[in-house]
């Protein structure tokens, strides 16, 4: 298997799907001539030309709407947001147009499109530009929400997203783009709605998604040194969520911690905990704990930002607590 | 971590205990399992053991003090640990809500009502009360008293306000690394246990009340259930689970659903004759050959001595295995017929009586019964019996022959269906085959719960008993 960056894995996925289906096109700020703000679309303008790789004005609501319209008439748009923080301006199109048109048209209009871009905090981008939006988006019936944490999943899931006939929200991470991982050489699709057990252990289930998968793997390594072996359940897709995979793991370990990048209240972890209490009530040996961003706007100061973010130390502490080891 | 030493429920019916003697002084190093004190319960003098390691920092009860179950008696902690807050909370026995007290009583109609003995039908209680009530627990790691069947302290206060519950998650605080606030003990009198622990306990037939919780606030968690078997070798926990095993095993009994006629008989007779519609069957047995056998056995040496009481117990036990309809418990909605014979015998003690049990008495030799009965009676008088030694019987005998009583009626111990009252053996002139002979005669009277046993059923059982006693060699085979 080749070792690729998350960024290059995404580029491969885009290229393969642009080649495979000429209804697919990419649209967004700086995606063409500048090769993308984070260089995900590097080289695509040269290969596919300005009709397929389209630079837009700085008008999130506008080009998101154009995307929905294009999807209604049979194209398969990929709308790139420079970051999901900017996509707030476009949420009316995402939530009211993309997510609901199939339903409100009585099935006459499919919306086979992808909204993608980096999500969550990077480093010192401050309160307005350091936000994880998956729980907002996963709240909406009609959307699928994908949160790949590794290059292989990024590629496999983006290809699945592009081929899906529903609007798919695809959440990447600025801090993820340079991370590396093995990616199969041959073509493959990662199924939407299927979690992956990224690490196996009997003592506790650590359920996570997106950028936090990397943190979870570090936690698993750290705990293994102490003889604690955990399941790392990477949800990969937060909507639809793989409840079965969660239950399977928790029924085995009897304990769970949910790790996510966003805030506590109504976060993705809330939903995971709800599934666990419903599906695994008699299997639980301790309350499920959550690790998440502190309930404050992201501080700019480096030390405060570090304190506000979920991290390996907080996760280890939570796992020891549910194991009654603290 | 400080460990609270509380008045534990050391017997199924214990509501309070009197601290007889401290075995450890303040400042003594103690280990988990060390005997801290002797406590007199309603039935026996029991050992109160440490549930944690450390120094016995403070004794809060004096010898002679009687305290309700749950009362803080002492504190075990590290030598330099601040225990002021724990000590400050002393004197207030953990209150169980009156509702739970009622519930506990409602679930144990058979408990403590009769003067004869306290039956602990552990199986029944276990199945009906999967989450036992218990006094509130401390913040100690392992200090939940093993309480389950005990009714709440009489002077149960209303549950305290929920102020001391762990704070629910609030928006400004992160939920995961929230420190140890969650280990604050709840003060509402509930025994905490994880759903998994409850499930495992049910599956394994372990009574949660007999398990020491090691989680926050004394919560019983998976590892406590897993350890429960291992540690069940000493103390009350052992007694409880052993007793539970004795009665709880599938295959040891058969539950017979009530037929309509049975239900009607039960209802009508209860209306007529109190909660247990009892009737009595008296038979005079010929004990001549039994008396001869006793004499011969005694000549063989002390090891072979057997009393009339031992002979009757053996005969009754054998007869019970042949008459499961008599070897039965009344469960209210079914009759539980046992295929093992656990025979309780009433023993007079200084201020009452107690009924130690000869388990599987049909399997014991006459001499084993004799030895066990002597030992049980001796320890009963010394109040040294463990709870599992006087609970779990399927039938009872009571003997007043040694007091010169010819014949009497005994009170049934619910949920048992019968008890056999044994009078004294005396020589009487009696017609045998038309000839007057002097024979040893013994009168036995069986009290029968008519909901379970009909006249003919009881009579047939007594016939079998008669057969064994009048042909006593059959007891030696």
Q: What is the number of E strands of chain A? A: 14
Q: What structural class do helix, strand and pairing data of chain B support?
A: alpha+beta
**Tally of extended strands of chain B?**
19
What's the architecture of the largest domain in chain A in CATH terms? 3-Layer(aba) Sandwich
* Helix segment tally of chain B: 11
Walk across the major sheet of chain B and give the strand order: 10-19-18-17-13-16
Q: Find the structural class of chain A using helix and strand composition.
A: alpha/beta
Notes on the structure:
The complex is a heterodimer of chains A (326) and B (477). Chain A is of the alpha/beta class. Chain A has two domains: 2-183, Rossmann fold, CATH 3.40.50; 196-322, Rossmann fold. Helices cover 36% and strands 18% of the residues of chain A. Chain A has twelve helices and 14 strands. Chain A has helices at residues 6-20, 44-48, 60-72, 91-98, 101-104, 134-138, 151-163, 212-225, 243-253, 268-279, 302-308, 312-322; strands at 2-5, 24-28, 53-55, 76-80, 114-118, 144-146, 168-172, 180-183, 196-199, 204-208, 230-234, 237-239, 256-259, 289-291. In chain A, the strands form three sheets. Chain A has a seven-stranded mixed beta sheet with strand order 3-2-4-5-7-6-12, with helices on both faces. In chain A, strands 9-11-10-13-14 form a five-stranded mixed beta sheet, with helices on both faces. A two-stranded antiparallel ribbon of chain A has the order 1-8. Chain B is an alpha+beta fold. In chain B, the strands form five sheets. A six-stranded mixed beta sheet of chain B has the order 10-19-18-17-13-16. Chain B has a four-stranded antiparallel beta sheet with strand order 1-8-6-3, with no helix packed on it. Chain B starts with a strand and ends in a 7-residue tail after the last helix. The A-B interface holds A 254, 257, 264-265, 281-286, 289-292, 294-295, 314-315, 317-318, 321, 324, 326 and B 169, 171-177, 180, 182, 194-199, 214-216, 221-223.
């Amino acid at each position: 298997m080749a070792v690729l960056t998350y960024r290059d894995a995404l580029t491969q996925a885009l290229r393969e799907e642009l080649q495979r289906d000429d209804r697919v096109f990419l649209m967004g700020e700086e995606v063409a001539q500048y090769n993308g703000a984070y260089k995900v679309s590097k080289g695509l303008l040269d290969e596919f030309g300005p009709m397929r790789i389209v630079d837009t004005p700085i008008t999130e609501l506008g080009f998101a709407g154009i995307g929905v319209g294009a999807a209604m008439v049979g194209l398969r748009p990929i709308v790139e947001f420079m970051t999901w923080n900017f996509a707030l301006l476009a949420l009316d199109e995402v939530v009211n147009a993309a997510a609901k048109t199939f339903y409100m048209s009585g099935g006459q209009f499919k919306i086979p499109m992808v909204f993608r871009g980096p999500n969550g905090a990077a480093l010192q981008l401050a309160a307005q530009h350091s936000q994880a939006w998956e729980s907002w988006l996963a709240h909406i019936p009609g959307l699928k929400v994908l949160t790949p944490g590794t290059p292989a999943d990024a590629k496999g899931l983006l290809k699945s997203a592009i081929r899906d006939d529903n609007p798919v929200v695809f959440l990447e991470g600025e801090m993820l783009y340079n991370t590396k991982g093995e990616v199969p050489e041959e073509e493959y699709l990662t199924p939407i709605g299927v979690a992956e057990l990224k690490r196996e252990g009997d003592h506790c289930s650590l359920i996570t998604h997106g950028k936090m998968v990397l943190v979870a793997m570090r936690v698993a390594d750290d705990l293994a040194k102490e003889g604690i072996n955990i399941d790392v359940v990477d949800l990969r897709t937060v909507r639809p969520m793989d409840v079965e995979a969660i239950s399977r793991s928790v029924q085995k370990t009897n304990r769970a911690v949910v790790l996510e990048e966003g805030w506590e209240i109504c976060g993705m972890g809330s939903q995971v905990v709800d599934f666990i209490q419903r599906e695994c009530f008699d299997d639980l040996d301790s309350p499920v704990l959550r690790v998440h961003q502190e309930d404050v706007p992201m501080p700019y100061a480096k030390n405060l930002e570090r304190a506000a973010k979920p991290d390996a130390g907080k996760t280890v502490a939570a796992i020891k607590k549910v194991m009654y080891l603290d | 971590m400080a460990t609270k030493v509380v008045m534990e429920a050391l017997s199924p019916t214990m509501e309070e205990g009197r601290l007889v003697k401290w075995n450890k002084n303040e400042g003594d190093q103690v280990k988990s399992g060390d005997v801290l004190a002797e406590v007199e319960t309603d039935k026996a003098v029991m050992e109160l053991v440490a549930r944690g390691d450390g120094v016995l920092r403070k004794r809060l009860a004096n010898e002679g003090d009687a305290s309700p179950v749950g009362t803080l008696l002492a504190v075990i902690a590290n030598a330099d640990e601040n225990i002021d807050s724990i000590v400050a909370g002393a004197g207030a026995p953990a209150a169980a809500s009156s509702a739970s007290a009622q519930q506990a009583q409602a679930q144990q109609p058979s408990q403590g009502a009769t003067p004869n003995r306290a039956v602990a039908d552990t199986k029944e209680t276990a199945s009906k009360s999967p989450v036992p009530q218990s006094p509130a627990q401390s913040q100690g790691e392992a200090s939940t008293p093993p309480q389950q069947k005990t009714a709440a302290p009489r002077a149960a206060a209303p549950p305290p306000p929920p102020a001391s519950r762990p704070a629910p998650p609030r928006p400004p605080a992160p939920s995961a690394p929230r420190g140890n606030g969650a280990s604050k003990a709840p003060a509402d009198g509930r025994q905490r246990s994880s759903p998994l622990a409850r499930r495992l306990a049910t599956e394994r037939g372990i009574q949660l009340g007999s398990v020491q919780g090691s989680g926050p606030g004394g919560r019983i968690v998976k590892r406590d259930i897993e350890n429960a078997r291992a540690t069940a070798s000493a103390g009350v926990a052992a007694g409880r689970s052993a007793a539970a095993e004795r009665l709880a095993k599938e295959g040891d009994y058969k539950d017979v659903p009530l037929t309509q006629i049975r239900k009607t008989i039960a209802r009508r007779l209860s209306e007529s004759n109190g909660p247990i519609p009892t009737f009595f069957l008296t038979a005079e047995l010929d004990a001549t050959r039994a008396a001869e056998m006793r004499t011969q056995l005694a000549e063989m040496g002390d090891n072979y001595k057997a009393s009339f009481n031992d002979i009757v117990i053996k005969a009754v036990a054998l007869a019970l295995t042949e008459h499961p309809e008599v070897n039965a418990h009344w469960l209210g909605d079914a009759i539980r017929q046992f295929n093992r014979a656990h025979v309780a015998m009433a023993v007079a003690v200084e201020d009452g009586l107690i009924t130690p049990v000869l388990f599987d008495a049909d399997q014991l030799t006459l001499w084993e019964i004799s030895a066990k009965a002597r030992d049980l009676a001796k320890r009963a008088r010394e109040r040294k019996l463990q709870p599992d030694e006087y609970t779990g019987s399927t039938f009872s005998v009571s003997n007043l022959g040694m007091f010169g009583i010819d014949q009497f009626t005994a009170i049934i111990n619910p949920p048992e269906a019968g008890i056999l009252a044994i009078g004294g053996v005396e020589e009487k002139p009696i017609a045998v085959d038309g000839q007057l002979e002097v024979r040893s005669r013994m009168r036995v009277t069986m009290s029968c719960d008519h909901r379970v046993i009909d006249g003919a059923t009881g009579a047939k059982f007594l016939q079998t008993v008669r057969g064994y006693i009048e042909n006593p060699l059959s007891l030696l085979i």
